[in-house]
Request: fold
Amino acid sequence: MAQISKQQKAAAVLEAASAQFMCPLCNGSVRVDGGGLLCGEGHRYDMAKNGYINFLSRPASDRYGKAGFTSRTELYRHGFLSPVFDWCVQQVVDWQRCGVLRVLDAGCGEGSPLHLMVKQLRAHRVKIHPVGIDISKQAVHVAAREYPGSTWLVGDLSRPPLQPGVFDVLLNLFAPANYDAFSRLLVPGGVLIKAAPGPDHLKELRSLVAKKPIQAVAEDGETVDHFCRNTVDASRSRCKGTFPLDWQGAQQALIRSSPLAWDADDTVLQGAEEAALTEVTY
Reply:
């Protein structure tokens, strides 16, 4: 029996989703053409070897790096933030409409949250077509490699390569928001689900590496207020807990995957890795 490659699987997914895309350069419709997408003005976007489409005309800066995304994948596979994702899934299950739900994860990172939620939604017998988009090519590369069943895009949310009014559910989980774009992308009556850090999020790690933890907390509160000002019928819930760092390499994975450590010098990072953390708050 012939084997189907990841790229062939991705091409089939792309074909099914192609009507949702548009060219970010001219805003024209695109069609599947060979191993990629082509608009009427001749702008072409080829599919990468492992099955994602890059809509950026120039690469974006990225401070995570391969090690950061690999560490984040490892954390998620051990259950980091699972209660948050469980709550998000329940919101979709409670809201769901008939037919196939078109779900966009805006700021999908390395893809684990969307993948985990898709598995749960399908277990609830929710029919779903998932799309993930992120400005980081490295992140989307990991997502497409690890989770080939979804559509993965490299793109800028300030000019998303997506048609207006096509998504039933839009997820924005621990990622920057663009509410003008979100409003344009959602169908009328669609649902936007955002997760943002609470005041105690990663407080144990902040105490070890962050230079301005008090400022970080203030910014998190502003994120929630900004969400409520920019959405209709907004509601908020708090999900707080602790995640045990009880497996080998857990603390190192946490540090490497967090932007909190980006500006810490080597001495601070070494001290953080040597500190005896047993759990972290989310």
User: Anything to note?
Assistant: The CA atoms of residues 74 and 253 lie 7 Å apart. The longest strand covers residues 186-195. The mean pLDDT is 90. The two ends are 47 Å apart (CA to CA).
